[in-house]
Design brief:
Elements (H helix, E strand, L loop, with lengths): L22 H9 L2 E5 L5 E5 L2 H9 L3 E2 L33 H10 L4 H25 L3 E2 H6 L1 H11 L6 H12 L5 H24 L5 H8 L4 H32 L1 H9 L4 H12 L7 E4 L3 E3 L2 E3 L4 E4 L1 H4 L34 H18 L4 E2 L21 E3 L1
Parallel strand pairs: 2-8
Antiparallel strand pairs: 1-2, 3-5, 4-10, 5-8, 6-7, 9-10
Helix pairs in contact: 4-6, 4-14, 6-10, 7-8, 8-10, 10-14, 12-14
């Protein structure tokens, strides 16, 4: 008999271990990898936990990213707000051809040459943060002093945003990503973002500089609303995801000392280590979310037009049908194949930048502090359970 006595189920959120997805996701993947699920607005949609089904949803154009068609799988204060089409520039909540138009403009700015040119600066920024930590002495919060500043500084320099303004966009990002934020808090944060970018756009039009955001402005294809929405997406995504991977990834390596020792013994494993940490930790733990534009049969289940489908990346990335022994962190595992950067047309635009930051920052951290250790018991490390991007709020360390 099914351990899920009633269908539809609700989205599983309770973890017994901070590094593992909820156990119910594993059970669902084994029993019914495309399962009916109740959504907060009363609709019944689907939860996808299997790897092959997840790839299908993320690549099939019959599944839409349009915001007005979607519903979050978890109830929270803003979940019941009326859904309307994405505002101009919010390309992550659009389908082709609108999405293609914006993506093409951004791809022209995120060139391989520009990302490669950033590597010496990433290394310099990382070294500066490590020197500051060493000077201040232990204990230190690795998130505040290392994991968050590095990608924040990098994305600010890439976009041409003053790092001195980081508190404003970091606060707004935290509000948008926190499921417990009220509707009023979200609106206030949105007003702040709009005002911030209005001033930035005006300054860059008056005094153009050599950065990505100025490039978007001077191209002349985008209006101020589009520039504001695109700018905030890039700024938020550019610091939030990598910051959480650096903090949470360090926590994972400290709690898996054999893996850390293997990386120390063979620094050439860093590329594999980055990919394996991305797979194993899967910090995007709620979504991606799609909606069926027509009836689709997916692994024996009939998904009707209009049904909302949530993909669980933590479950899909640990599917034993995709790779052996997926519950084990193994940095020697052949890299590639995970879905942590998404898949299909919405695959993460800045993934090469994120990889570069992690490939440089992790080895430099462990080289500078060979005795790095947690400064508190592991169970006291505060986890980002209510955030859309999972990880650690803080990571107290000593050395």
């Amino acid at each position: 008999m099914s351990e899920f006595r009633t269908w539809p189920i609700t989205f599983p959120v309770d973890r017994s271990d901070p590094f593992d997805p909820p156990e119910r996701l594993r059970s669902l993947r084994r029993e019914r990898p495309v399962a009916p699920m109740a959504y907060p607005d009363g609709r019944v949609g689907w939860l996808v936990t299997g790897y092959s089904a997840a790839r299908s949803v993320l690549t099939d154009p019959r599944f839409s990213s349009r915001r007005e068609l979607l519903c979050p799988p978890i109830d929270y204060p803003a979940a019941h707000e009326a859904r309307h089409p994405a505002d101009p520039g919010q390309f992550v909540r659009m389908d082709p051809p609108e999405h293609t138009h914006y993506r093409k403009l951004l791809t022209a700015q995120f060139t391989v040459r520009r990302m490669k040119q950033l590597e010496p600066r990433i290394q310099e920024i990382t070294g500066e943060r490590l020197a500051a930590m060493a000077k201040a002495g232990p204990p230190q919060d690795l998130v505040r002093e290392f994991a968050l500043p590095i990608p924040s500084l990098v994305i600010c320099e890439l976009l041409g945003v003053p790092y001195a303004d980081r508190e404003e966009f970091q606060h707004a990002t935290a509000v948008f990503l926190n499921r417990e934020s009220s509707v009023e808090e979200i609106r206030a944060a949105l007003d702040g973002v709009t005002g911030f970018f209005a001033g930035l756009i005006a300054r860059k039009r008056a005094e153009p500089t050599d950065d990505l955001f100025t490039g978007l402005i001077t191209d002349g294809e985008l209006n101020d609303e589009e520039l504001t929405n695109i700018g905030f997406i890039l700024l938020a995504a550019g610091h939030e995801t990598t910051a959480n991977m650096l903090g949470f990834g360090t926590f994972a390596l400290l709690r898996h000392p054999a893996q850390l020792a293997a990386l120390r013994a063979d620094p050439s494993l860093i590329d594999n280590a980055v990919e394996e940490l991305m797979r194993y930790l899967s910090i995007v733990h709620v979504g991606p979310i799609r909606a069926a534009l027509e009836d689709v049969e997916l692994e024996g289940e009939l998904i009707r037009a209009g049904d909302v489908v949530t993909v669980s990346l933590p479950a899909a990335n640990r599917d034993p049908g995709h790779l052996p022994d997926p519950e084990r962190l193994d940095i020697t595992r052949p890299a590639g194949g995970h879905l942590s950067f998404g898949h299909g047309v919405h695959q993460c635009l800045g993934q090469q930048l994120a990889r570069a930051e992690m490939r440089l920052a992790f080895p430099m951290l462990f080289d500078r502090f060979p005795g790095l250790r947690l400064a508190v018991p592991a169970e006291e490390v505060p986890m980002r359970d209510t955030m859309s991007i999972y990880g650690v709020h803080a990571l107290p360390v000593g050395w």
